[in-house]
Amino acid sequence: MFNSAFDAIVPLLCVTLAALASMSAEAFRGKGERMPIGGLGIVGLAGAAVSCVLLWNRNTSSFGVIVADNFGLFVTMTLIIVGLLTIMFSSQVLDLHDLPRGEYYTLVLFAIAGMIMMATANDLLVLFIALEIMSLAVYVLTGIRRDDQRSSEAAFKYFLLGAFSSAFFLYGIAFTYGVTGSTRLDRVGTFLAAQSMADNPLLLVALGLLLVGFAFKISAVPFHMWTPDAYEGAPAIVTGFMSTGVKAAAFAAFARVFLSAFEPFSADWAPVVWVIAAATMILGTVVGVAQSNLKRMLAYSSIAHGGYLLVGLVAANQVGKAAILFYLLAYAVTNLAAFGVIAMLGARDRANDELRDYAGLWQSHPALAALMTVCLLSLGGIPPTVGFIGKWYIFSAAVGSGYYGLAIIGVLTSVISVFFYLRVVVMMYMAERDGAPALPRVGAVGMTALAIAIFAIFYLGILPTAVLDLAAASISTIF
Amino acid sequence: MVALIPLFPFVGFLVNATCGRRLPKVVSGGLASLAMVAAFAVSALSVWQLAALPVDARAIEQTVYTWIASGDLVLGLTFRVDPLSAVMILVITGIGSLIHIYSTAYMHDEPDSEFARYFSYLNLFAAFMLVLVLGASFVVMFVGWEGVGLCSYLLIGFWFKKKSASDAGKKAFVVNRIGDYAFILGMLLLFTRFGTLDFQGVASAVAGLPPEATFGALSLATLLLFIGATGKSAQIPLYTWLPDAMEGPTPVSALIHAATMVTAGVYMIGRNAVLFSHTPETMMVVAVVGAATALMAGTIGIVQNDIKRVLAYSTVSQLGLMFLAMGVGAFGAGIFHLYTHAFFKALLFLGSGAVIHALHGEQDIRNMGGLKAGLPITYWTFLIGSLAIAGVPGLAGFFSKDEILFETFADGHTVLWVVGALTSLLTATYMFRLVFLTFHGSASAKATADTHDLAWNAGLPSHAHSHGHGAGSHLHDAPPAMAIALVVLALGSVLAGYVGVPHALGGHNQLATWLEPAFEAEHTASATAEVVAPAAEPAGGLQASGEASEESETGEARLELTLMGVSSAIAFLGIGIAAFIWLKRRPSTSSGQVEIADRMAQRFPGLHRLLLNKYYVDEVYDAAVVQPIRIISEEGLWRGFDVRVIDGAVNGAASIVDGGAWMLRRLQTGSVRTYAGSVIFGVTMILGYYLWR
Fold it and tell me: Quick check: ipTM above 0.90?
């Protein structure tokens, strides 16, 4: 590339330009004219992916606030994959519900741009702006089915509470600036490492408030309350997008802030995150068991997965940090595929997202049932899927750092969680379809996306070494 | 080549899972069976190669590829055939092949798609089971461990239209999850301790340590692993799922719930013999739990009336004996019994399947009787199986059970020996109760006419409308595919024991000698200490020492002969008791129950009810564990934290009102406020912790 100050934001620019292009395309689209707007998004994301590859190992930064280090690039790649799969799953869903294509893709792309910015931001204020770019787009996506009350309600709740938590986050930034005199993460880090700031109440408050902001976005207990409602109300594919993309971006930023700038204070935040992680895993799993709506069940499941990621954060040894990155990718692919299946099985007048709607899926959609089974087994951490490797890494990191309690809770909850994943499998294979209306067929694009995701689940489960090495290389650049 | 062994059944699974529905039964069933036979052929070849190697170097290893290599964790997908896994793969593929062949006839009445689904599960199970025993590390074993559990679950619930079947599947799953949980924790603990999960790596690391005299980290790890084993191998306290698992098709009970999967726990302890023998406290637990399970299941077995349930409790009981052997350090004896048990228990299950098949789904032995004449092949093979399990001299069960009892006694555990002997007595009694009630006595009207009606209600639907044997009076014996399996297994039940004839009887106990290297850390490291061991020690040469002089050897032989006499006497006594109580059955007893048994049940009503209700363990578990968890999950956490209930109520009302007003109302009725309150709560807690800690 050009070796200029703009290098580090090239992936971001690709996605943003694609978003703008989609918006213009929609604006100039004739009435009734069909345009492959989703294609623009795919081109933009592909461009971002290429630039990520070119930026790998170069550790560039733009204006000191956006850094394209390997860590950021790894997460960016994960987000690009999330974006690509989302777009591929969406086309069928958009047709079905007559959703505005241009707006939808534009919002998805802007959200991804915000996520990428979050993952690469090196300044707390830029991080905040990124968070808002992402969040605003996702709020609107949640409520994009304007004719559906549940969708609007979900968007409204999500928006109110999101705004509420953003305020805490911003307050945390203000306190940090007040103590350290900078919002740049590297400067904050240097300042904190140099000064003896132990037990400085202002700094501790800053720490706590930032923690709240992140915990909300990754729906950690007790900041998770919005999650089941928002996930259930949003269109299934948006839920998939939120539960993977938003979580990945928020986690990347969380890890960057807490493991680099606030690393000297890990003795202060680790116990708190320990408690949050334990509560998140337990609540997500135990309440998940009682659900009969598939989207709501997966919402709780994604809460629990956030807990596992927090375990990696607490056990922040080298293995733990690499495990976070690997787990993010693993979880993103698996969860998005599962929601993709739900989205594509939805009918115009019927969401088809209750557990009993899946009865006998094996009879009517054998391939889809098999693919869904793989996703669910991976979410449950059954070998030889990627979910097993991800969990194995997280828990061995926890044990390696001496966090036996977290490992015990983590293993226990993941053992229990298999119960509700397998309930769906049992429904699909071992139940009769009694009288419920037939489920729609799934289009070729959607099936292709699913096939890619399933391939990734097995590939990363059976041959994880290459990606694990990448993850290990990524964390070595910043921490 | 080793990797081919699990690969064959896996390919069979793939074919049957993807296009089995469109294949005729001959092809899908034939393919599945062929895959197993091929796996058996490769296994036999591998074992033959293994035997050709010098004793110290008996291991064939194949690393398919490096699964995980990152940081300090390097883990290959490695398969290893050593003397121990050699025995296992032969049992799994050999008996597995027979059961696949048997199944082609047994499941013939299923529609094509169900037939293919059955065989795809069965093949997948075999593949995972082979991965379990061939895996060279805990993690690879765990892959198989999880996999067989999954398949077992799917197969128990195979006839999911029956509610009891899907409930049984669920129960098996939940109980096994508890065991798996402990197993994973044990694995993690070992990993932190030794930094490796390879079996040989762990064994050689442990070999250098002194045995753990008091309960420490190693004891905890082995105890956790043992809890995992109690789940998979149906021991106290996690045995309750196995009797219910009989809801699955009978060949599945034979393969998974008798011959192979349930022995995984025993195998796992044998695989980690070095580790376990360094933790005497855990070993004691293993022995006691094994003995207690053996006795308890035996007592329950004696009053059950479902032919398969009797066999299921018998399996639990025999597994208990194997764990007893493992616990007293007689690893070779435990594996020996595992191996002989696989033959006769598979035979007994398949025989009971033939009976059930002939009676169109009848399983209650009170409704049977006099089947001897109508089902000669089934009768004679079943009788051989019963003689073998009862421990009648000369048959397979005699040698292995006797070795366990002898080792227990020789190790100084007199009480455990008494328990084991009592179990043997019970075994002989309940097995021959089964034989007499099923095959002897009057060809009671019940067995033919009445049960036909019963079958329509209680039995398997698929058999009820099976190929038009309309009149119930016409019994027909096992069709050829089933008969072959029965006869071969019967031969095995007679002959399998002769690989382990003890020295006291002038034999050489080849099996013990063969297995010995598998229970040692590193062949080279311990070679000096063990020079005399193979000749001196009948089995489990861990405590082998050079002290065994000629004199004590003859003394031991005399003791062994005495004990052998005792256990033979016990076997005959048990059969005699059964004959006394149940053989005198008269045609006139219309109730189907027999007088003496009835009288005894009347004299001890409490005991009888206690046994009939299986000591009320299921009820206790339900009250003490299941209900509390359900209440916490559904009533407590869900209602408390998830405000869906409020939502639901509001939703109903809200849908009437239009958008804007509805949202406003919504805000005021609380749910968003509740959510914000939760955020505030979190903030307060965190900041409070920082400011006032």
Answer: no
